[in-house]
């Protein structure tokens, strides 16, 4: 067997990159491909680490109300455990097993894989459900993969989750907002339903990480301990007698892994351009001519696409150098169309080396075969909510060491692998935090609070949080819900708005504008806008002249939301033609999805007894009054995010920015941080080069430049604010209110 040659050294230095090595153990091995690939599915399943534990796992699940399963990515938790439960009879008697995922893509791909392993059509015995898309059949589906958010929403109809015998909360280590809420609620449900089994599964790698992850798992296990007798976590109980409930002390099980060693390399000095460095490192590895796919971790869709472009150019250049392997770059991120995703998951054909440029999504939740090299930028986009401004930031920040270890682990699935971290070892040690802050502690909680209230949990403060959110965030959520009319003065769910808003599968502001449209007689228009706001952008990726020109044809001075109405109308008039969409640089796929969402929301409105209406149908194109009705209904959901143009000095930001940035300030701010927040119009907005005096926006994010950039903007008249929200905005002389 040929010794495995360490990649990177020579070729990397040719690019001015040099990696310092740190061996994390394990002997080098000859390159072998994933031989499991050719094995029958049954045989593949038997080879997974979880297989040896299946009897013991089933025993624990039978004997304990809660079982925590810790095992590294790829050990078979997600795909196998639900199948074991199915085989063992947990899906008998018309009941189901649910398995929740924090990410939509994961729910879909995992369900597809399990359906394949069970030899059934997706949507039959095995199904999935994500928001606005339910691919399962009542009465037939036994294993249901869904996002954690979908299961939360199901609890509003079925608070005790009676349909399910087992709920598996997967990827619990990610600590998504909905997962944390779900865990808190499941603990409550178990008190009322002692027969319900909860499985909490979490990924981990390598000894170091297992140690810390187990502490986390133990914390979760302890959280679920409702027995009066304190037993050590992981204590195994006897099986309950026939008809008796299981033990309330949780079981803890670690699946021993099957990981190969991963050699970690660092840069000698941290790079200032990780995208470029990542591409260079990938090319360097490729030139070494050893087989194995490469996985690059970047922070967002744009970066992934940019990396793919750069790699394609490199690939063409390399074609002449007679390398054994052909370079095939692909991108993987959450918004990727399903058809493109397939290319990522399919095993590479002979002679092809896949280079996958991925976001965080590839960290633990989806299985990628054949990865031997990981290139880690050590960065990720981190969403963070600031309760003082009521705005979010989405900043590129260093990942945690726990994440970095997960990422490295992706290289060691098939055979010993390599992970290249694009920073120096010193920076890694000193600049990366140990763990990631749970989403619960850095999110806007208005939607969550509304859901909890509608589940009858009135005292939000005393809810058993796995990680309590900051008090300011809680207060802000209550204030916002009160302003929207969802809560009364005593912070109780108000009728009808509160209950109705909770019922709609939408953010509180969007739900509120739908309800307003019912009263103002323009449900048709607001449904369209809300549906368009619920999909990935309808515009083709921008930046090109022809795209911008096409967009300008639909653009109106009233802003993005009204421009969406124009797009919709034109698409409808074309007979929902794909050709029309292509010639107008509009994403047909997004429009189709919006149409589907629109139908579902329409059904929701019918159920709420809200009659369909339209303000613009039959009105002339210049009927400003009819249009104002629609705009007001939209503003009824967005008035909290109202901003006014200032006459503050404009700063010219870049050469493309010929107009400079107009500065906006929040109207609601009485002072403090909110007043200091500087907003401007995002370049994707149709109002980018305009200067409307008063606007409302659906989203604003602070980016790395420090600005808050508003997207999905609606131009309003100042009088509407006092008219729609007199409880929030008083008729003060506007000028003095805004002057500072
Ligand atoms: P875990 O949840 O423990 O991370 P999974 O159950 O997702 O593990 O995956 C177990 C194994 O199943 C993987 O190691 C892989 O071999 C196989 N697998 C899972 N999903 C797919 C897929 N979409 N295509 C091919 N193989 C897959
Ligand atoms: Mg999994």
UniProtKB/TrEMBL annotation:
SUPFAM superfamilies according to UniProt: P-loop containing nucleoside triphosphate hydrolases (SSF52540)
Reaction catalysed by this enzyme: ATP + H2O = ADP + phosphate + H(+)
Gene3D superfamilies referenced in this protein's UniProt entry, alphabetically: 1.20.120.1080, P-loop containing nucleotide triphosphate hydrolases
EC number per UniProt: 3.6.4.13
Single GO molecular function: RNA helicase activity
Top-level taxon of origin: Eukaryota
Family: Belongs to the DEAD box helicase family. DEAH subfamily.
Identification of the protein by name: RNA helicase
Organism annotation: Chlorella sorokiniana (Freshwater green alga)
């Amino acid at each position: 067997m040929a010794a495995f040659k360490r990649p990177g050294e020579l070729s990397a230095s040719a690019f001015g990159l040099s990696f310092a090595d740190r061996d994390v153990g394990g002997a080098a091995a000859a390159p072998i491909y994933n031989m499991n690939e050719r094995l029958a599915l049954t045989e593949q399943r038997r080879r997974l680490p979880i297989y040896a534990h299946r009897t013991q796992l089933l025993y624990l699940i039978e004997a304990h109300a809660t079982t925590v399963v810790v095992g590294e990515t790829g050990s078979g938790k997600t795909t196998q455990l639900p199948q074991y439960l199915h085989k063992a009879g947990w899906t008998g008697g018309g009941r189901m097993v649910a398995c929740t995922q924090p990410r939509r893509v994961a729910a879909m791909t995992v369900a597809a894989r399990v359906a394949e392993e069970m030899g059934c059509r997706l949507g039959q015995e095995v199904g999935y459900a994500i928001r606005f898309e339910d691919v399962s059949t009542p009465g037939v589906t036994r294993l249901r993969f869904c996002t954690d958010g979908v299961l939360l929403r199901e609890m509003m109809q079925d608070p005790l989750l009676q349909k399910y015998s087992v709920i598996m909360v997967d990827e619990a280590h990610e600590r998504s907002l909905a997962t944390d809420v779900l865990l808190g609620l499941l603990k409550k449900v178990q008190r009322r339903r002692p027969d319900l089994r909860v499985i909490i599964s979490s990924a981990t790698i390598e000894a170091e990480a297992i140690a810390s992850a187990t502490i986390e798992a133990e914390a979760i296990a302890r959280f679920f301990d409702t027995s009066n007798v304190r037993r050590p976590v992981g204590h195994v109980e006897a099986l309950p007698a026939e008809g008796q409930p299981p033990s309330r002390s949780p079981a803890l099980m670690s699946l021993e892994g099957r990981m190969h060693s991963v050699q970690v390399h660092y840069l000698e000095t941290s790079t200032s351009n990780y995208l470029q460095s990542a591409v260079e490192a990938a090319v360097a590895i490729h030139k070494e001519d050893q087989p194995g796919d490469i996985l690059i971790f970047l922070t967002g869709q744009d970066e992934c696409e940019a990396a793919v472009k750069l790699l394609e150019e490199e690939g063409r250049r390399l074609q002449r150098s007679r390398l054994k392997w052909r370079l095939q770059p692909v991108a993987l991120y959450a918004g990727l169309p399903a058809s493109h995703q397939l290319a990522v998951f399919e095993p590479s054909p002979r002679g092809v080396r896949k280079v996958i440029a991925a976001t965080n999504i590839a960290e633990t939740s989806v299985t990628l075969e054949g990865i031997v090299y990981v290139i880690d930028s050590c960065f990720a986009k981190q969403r963070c909510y600031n309760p003082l401004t009521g705005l979010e930031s989405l900043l590129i920040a260093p990942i945690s060491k726990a994440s970095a270890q997960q990422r490295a682990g992706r290289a060691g699935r098939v055979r010993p692998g390599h992970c290249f971290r694009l920073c120096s070892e010193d920076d890694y040690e000193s600049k990366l935090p140990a763990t990631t802050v749970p989403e619960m502690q850095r999110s806007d909680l208005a939607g969550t609070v509304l859901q909890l209230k509608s589940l009858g949990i009135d005292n939000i403060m005393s809810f058993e949080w796995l990680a309590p959110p900051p008090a300011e965030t809680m207060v802000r959520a209550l204030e916002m819900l009160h302003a929207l009319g969802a809560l009364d003065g005593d912070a109780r769910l108000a009728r009808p708005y509160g209950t109705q808003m909770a019922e709609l599968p939408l953010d509180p502001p969007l739900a509120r504008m739908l309800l307003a449209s019912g009263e103002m007689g323009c449900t048709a228009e607001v449904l369209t806008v809300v549906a368009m706001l619920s999909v990935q952008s309808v515009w083709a990726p921008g930046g090109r002249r022809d795209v911008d020109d096409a967009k300008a044809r639909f653009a109106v001075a009233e802003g993005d939301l009204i421009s969406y109405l124009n797009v919709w109308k034109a698409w409808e008039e074309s007979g929902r033609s794909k050709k029309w969409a292509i010639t107008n640089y509009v994403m047909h796929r997004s429009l189709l999805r919006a149409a589907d969402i629109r139908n579902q929301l329409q059904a929701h409105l019918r159920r709420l007894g809200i009659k369909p209406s339209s303000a613009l149908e039959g009105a002339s194109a210049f009927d400003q009054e009819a249009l104002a009705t629609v705009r007001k209904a939209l503003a009824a959901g967005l008035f909290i995010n109202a901003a006014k143009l200032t006459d503050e000095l404009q700063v010219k930001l870049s050469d493309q920015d010929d107009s400079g940035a107009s500065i906006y300030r929040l109207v609601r701010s009485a002072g403090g941080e909110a007043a200091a927040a500087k907003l401007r119009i995002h370049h994707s907005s149709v109002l980018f080069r305009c200067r409307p005096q008063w606007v409302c926006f659906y989203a604003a994010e602070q980016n790395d430049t420090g600005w808050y950039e508003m997207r999905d903007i609606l131009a309003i008249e100042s009088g509407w604010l006092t008219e729609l929200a007199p409880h929030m905005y008083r008729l003060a002389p506007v000028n003095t209110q805004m002057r500072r």
